[in-house]
Structure formats: structure tokens, C-alpha cells
Amino acid sequence: MVWERYIPAVLAFPRWVKRLLALTVDAALCVLTLWFAFCLRLDYWGPLAGIQLVTIPVCLVVALPIFIRFGLYRAIFRFIGWDAYLAIIKAISLYGLIFMTIFTVISIPGIPRTVGILQPLLLLIAIGMSRLVTRYLLGGTYRNILRERSQSNVLIYGAGSMGRQLGTALGNGTELNVVGYLDDDQTLYGSYIGGIRVYDPRDLKKLVVKLNVRTVLLAMPGIDSRRRNEVIESLRGARVAVRLLPNVSELAQGLVRLSDFQELAIEDLLGRQSVAPDKTLLARNILGKVVMVTGAGGSIGSELCRQIMKIGPECLLLVDQNEYGLYSIHAELTRDGREDELSVIPLLGSVRDERRMREIMETFRPHAIYHAAAYKHVPLVEHNPIEGIGNNIFGTLVVAKAAIEMEVPSFVLISTDKAVRPTNIMGASKRVAELVLQALAERGGSTVFSMVRFGNVLGSSGSVVPLFRQQIAQGGPITLTHPEMTRFFMTIPEASQLVIQAGAMAEGGDVFLLDMGEPVKIIDLARRMVELSGLTVRDDDNPDGDIAFEMTGLRPAEKLYEELLISDNPEQTAHPLIMKAHEDFLPWSALEKALYSLQQAMNSGDLVAARELMGKLVSGYRPSADIVDFVALRQMERTDRFGPLPEDESSDFGGMIR
Q1: CA proximity to 33, closest of 107, 106, 99
Q2: Is the residue at 588 inside a domain?
Q3: 3-state secondary structure 388-430
Q4: Is the pLDDT of residue 174 over 70?
Q5: Under a CB-based contact definition with an 8 Å cutoff, are residues 407 and 366 in contact?
Q6: Are residues 115 and 24 both part of a single domain?
Q7: Is residue 362 part of a domain?
Q8: Of 212 and 496, more confident
Q9: 629, 549: one domain
């Protein structure tokens, strides 16, 4: 159909334009349903007139602010789900109550009372149908063209100097056959470069079928990230794999193979716009100073180290209990003699070891500590809760107390959105770690404590992207826990830079939030990866597709969606992607007693008591009824089979098996 060719253009609109368009459509539906309500009541199909016109501004002034407040324009319409429809129902119910009060209960002469009842009902149907139609038109028209597959024929997107050089290099090989160029310059359409024609990118779907194209190679190194995302988005529906240009040295060799091309970067999969960092904030706590990173061998900690080394510290202390992780990041940062051995120092040690943390700080006197050491895999911590509590809470407490004692000026905790109204031990333990720093900050002192809370980082250990790539390469299925699961996402480099900048703005006890953008449905990310691999999803609408999705169900204590705020009062900072939250916390005198009881329960292996204490400490946390700790479950099993354990065996587990 003709309108199909315009869908990529609509999807490429900036987010604010899409929201404004949706708002305009809803405003038009308000007016249209008003007219229809009058027509039904009066059996007169003419225009509104006289006093009837008063209902229009009243309707718009009441409805639109309510729609905005209920978040009707935050959802991505082509992936709209039940949560969005529920928001529509709630918003229109509130609007209907107000509208009915004005025109039915109070009443205005000349306006039938039934209009106050009819119009909200018609509006609910109209807006609901508009979302359904939008979802169908935008989400269901991409995969309608079937074509033959060919591994050899490729299109090059970009007919500039780099694209031409790529075409020449591919012409010298035998694996790939360039059948055309795509370019945004309309003056090039129909012309030939080296005997190969330049086509309009809008004709891509037709070209894929006509020329048996399997892969599109992007050769536009100079474009900005926004335009790059627009191009990638426009390629999604054509069932072609999208690959990035190899480096210039490979092109210069004049022979390029398909394996030389790179997969789309994680930020391309997100379609997220990057913001240039504030160099002053980056340098404030790092340039020319001694910096310490705990958990330096982990995915987030190691990226923090990379970003810190780019800024130029006097010395970087890498602290981790994982020998291989510590070796790997140290080897990377000192490879080929790029850094003086004395400027990057690997230090083995656990953050729960008070003596080790104190001696490291006393010896090297760090100016800033970035505390990234934590157990963060939700199901794993749920199965090993005592260790999770010990590492995430008391490890933070040990490092923080050592920092106070050694008068470290800056301490930044890497926190998580799972600390907000947590449903699992990992999130609850991270919230308690935040409470520890907030309470210590209130006591005053020379150490400025802050914490930075953000969502999932793509590319970290346990990230879904490497897993999905592996499953796609194996032919599927892609395993998902729930079709409606959403997460906030950010790349590790961007998150690390924002953590450093947030820490530089800290005044003491600050809870910083990173702007993660719109929440992303995991199933949509998986679908995007499948489509940009040149494949299709196998489902009821497309039984002949390539990759199936398999729903495995939510794991223990896993949430469908995450939040960044406990209270709805964020304050914008000087950085556009960093906000500050103002949240309640316990004074140190009260928290210290609770921590002592928690440590006693932890040391005795009393999981039941530990979970109860966590529930009292953390607002919104209600431990699940089921205990899934592997050790506790095995002890329960042994008790059921053989009766109570001997005193010397059961004493450490008494709390868990009662």
C-alpha cells in the first residue's frame, strides 16, 4: 500500500514530534467525540453552535493535562501494551468524572445532561481504537514482503569517498557482490559509480527483492549519531543484515571479507542519542589525583577505569577480589607500555576486609573512591542471599568507614534502579548501602558521600545483548522471561562518564539519578536485533519466520519493570542527564543498631531474621514467601529426610530450617 512507504519517515521523527502529534490527534478526538455525542443526543447531524461550543475548551482544558499527567504520551505506540491501555482507562475515568460533574451534575442550560456521560465513553473508545490502529499500521507492515535469500549480494549505504573505496575493495574479492549504492543525495539517483547504480534508500524494500540483497553495509563514518540512528531504523523492515564499515587499514589492503565487517554497536541497537560530557566535571576529582576503584575487574568497574585513565589521574588503584578480572583490566590499561606501571596499581582484596581496605587507603591516600564492587545478578543473589547482603551492605560500610578514617575527600557508590521499591535481595541490599552512605553523610566530616543510581548497562556481564546475539547465531530460540518486561538501558561508557560527572557535583549524601531515556521492552530489543540481522521473528503472524521467542517466566523476585525514584521529586542538576533525588533515610544512631542485628543474623546464617530485618529497613521491600537459598533448601531437605541435624552441624543454620 502507498502509506507503507511513509512509515519509516514517521518512525524517524524526533520523540517530541511524535508526542506532539499524538497530543494533537487526541485533542481532535476530544472535539470529534463532543460533536458525535451532541448528534446522538439531539438526532441532528450539523455543526456545534451557540452554547454548545462552550464544551470544546472545557473538554480540552480538562482532558489534555490529565492525559499528560497519566503518561499517555510516554509509551511507544507501535509496541503499546496493557499497561498503556490501563493508563488510558484511568485517565479518561478521571476526566469523565470531572466532565460529568460539570455538564451532568451541575448542568449548563442548553447542553443536554447526557452529553456529560456520552462523550467520555465515546472518547475512551476513540482513543483506545486510535492506539490499536497506530500499533497495527506502524508495527505490522514491515514483514510483508517475502524474497529469495542470497549471501553474496550487498548494498552499500553511502556513495561518498569511503563508500566508493569500500566498493573497490569488495570488487577485488570473491565473497561479496556489490549490486548498488544507497545515498541521501538525490542528485546521485540513477547515476553509476564504477558501473554500479546509485538508488534511493526509500526503494530499499523493492531493491531487496529485485536484486536478492541480503546485507546492507554502512559506509558513512562522518554522520552524527542521530542521523546514524535514523538510517539504521529505516533499514529494520527490509529483512537485511546491517553491518558497519571495517577500519581504514583493512580497506587500504584492498581486500575485504564479510567477516571483516562489525556488528552494530550497542548504542546503535538502543537508538540512544549521546550527550557530550562536561570536561570540567570529569577532571574535578580525577585529573592529577590518586583515584581508587573497587570492583575494578567487573564490567562497570573496568569501564570506569578506562574512562578515568583517559582523564589523566596521578595514580589509579584497581581493587578487586577476582584475580583474573583484576589481571585483565591491569593488562589492558598497561598494554604496550602505554602507561607507567606505577600509575596503574592492581590490588587484590575483598571490600569486606577492614584491614586491607584501611592499609590501601593509608598507603596511597586516594582523593576519590568509586565503589563499584557488588553482587548484582538478581537470581544469583536471591539464591545466595547471605553473601549478597555481606558484600553489598557490609562491604560498602567497610570501605566507607575506612574512607572516613583516612579522610578521603570523595566517595561515590555505584547503585541501581533495583534499589527502588525492591522485590529482591540484590535491590534491597543496594538500597541499604545507600542508606548507610546517607546516614554517614549526615554525621558530617571531610568525606563527601554520594551515590549514582541507574538502570541496566548494555554490554555488562549478564547483559541480554551478548546472550541474544549468541541465540540468534544459533538459530534461536531467544529466551525471554516475560513479553511485557521493560528495563532502562544505557551503554557502559556513557554510564561511567555520567557517574564521574555526578560525583564531581556531590555536596554530601546526594542520590543522583541518570536519565536513562524511555524504558525499553526487552522483547522489542530482541526483535530489533533479529530484524537488523536480516531475519524475522517466528510467531503466529509469521509462522515461517527465522527466530522464535520462548517465554521462560519471571525468575525468583524479578520485577516486570524498574523505577529510578522512590519519591516523585527529582531535581535537575547542571547536567542535562543527571538529576538529584531527595529521599528519606535513617539517622546513623538508628541505622547502626539495625545493621548490628543484621550482621548478627548474617553471621549465624539466620536467613529468616535477615530477610525480616531487610524488610523493616527498606521502604517497599516485602520478602517473597519462598526461600530459594540453595544451602537453606538443602538443609531443609536433609532435615525432612533424617530429622534434626546434630548440634555441631545445625547450629549455624538453625534460623534457616525452623
Answers
A1: 99
A2: no
A3: HHHHHHHHHHHHHHHHHHCCCCEEEEECCHHHCCCCCHHHHHH
A4: no
A5: no
A6: yes
A7: yes
A8: 496
A9: no
Q: Mean per-residue pLDDT for 401-405?
A: 96
Does residue 441 share a domain with residue 328? yes
Residue found under cell 550497542:
266
Burial class (CB in 10 A: 0-12, 13-18, 19+), 495: buried
Flag whether 593 is in a domain: no
Residue type, 225: S
Q: 451 pLDDT band (50/70/90 cuts)?
A: very high
DSSP state of 558: -
d(CA 415, CA 545): 40
Output the nine-digit C-alpha cell for 288: 592529577
pLDDT band at 274 (very low <50, low <70, confident <90, very high): low
Structural domain of 637: 603-653
Report, as an integer, the average pLDDT of 111-125. 90
226 Cβ partners below 8 Å, 6+ apart?
273
Going 518 to 521 to 526 to 531, the CA torsion angle's sign is negative
Spatial neighbors of 649 by CB under 8 A, at least 6 apart, are none
| Residue 566 predicted with pLDDT over 70 | no
Alpha-carbon gap, residue 303 to 293, rounded angstroms: 10
Q: Are residues 404 and 491 in the same domain?
A: yes
Q: Pairing relation of β-strands 290-294 and 315-320?
A: parallel
> Which of 227, 262, 297 is the last residue in one of the domains?
262
Please pick, among 376, 418, 430, 559, the residue that the annotation labels catalytic.
Answer: 418
Residues 607 and 542 in one domain: no
Q: Which of 139, 172, 188 is the last residue of a domain?
A: 139
> For position 253, what pLDDT does the model report?
45
Q: Indicate if 132 and 190 belong to the same structural domain.
A: no
Number of folded domains that form the chain: 4
Instruction: Give the separation between CA 35 and CA 51, rounded to whole angstroms.
Output: 13
The mean pLDDT of the chain is: 80
Q: At residue 144, does pLDDT exceed 60? A: no
Q: What is the mean pLDDT of residues 263-289?
A: 74
> In the annotation, is 418 catalytic?
yes
Cell 541496566 belongs to residue = 456
Separation between Cα atoms, residue 433 and residue 397, nearest integer Å: 7
Q: How many whole angstroms separate alpha carbon 329 and alpha carbon 316?
A: 12
Predicted local distance difference test score (pLDDT) of residue 266: 53
**CATH code assigned at 160:** 3.40.50.720
Q: How high is the pLDDT of residue 439?
A: 94
Each residue's pLDDT tens digit, 456-499: 665 555 567 767 777 877 777 888 877 777 766 677 888 899 99
Judging by DSSP bridges, how do beta strands 192-193 and 196-199 pair with one another? antiparallel
Q: Is the peptide bond before 313 cis (omega within 30 degrees of 0)?
A: no
Q: Are 428 and 495 in a shared domain? A: yes
Q: Is residue 272 part of a domain?
A: no
Same domain, 449 and 327: yes
What phi-psi label fits residue 408: left (phi over 0), alpha (psi between -120 and 50 degrees) or beta?
beta
Instruction: Give the pairing type, strands 486-487 and 520-521.
Output: antiparallel
State which H helix or E strand residue 85 sits in. helix 82-100
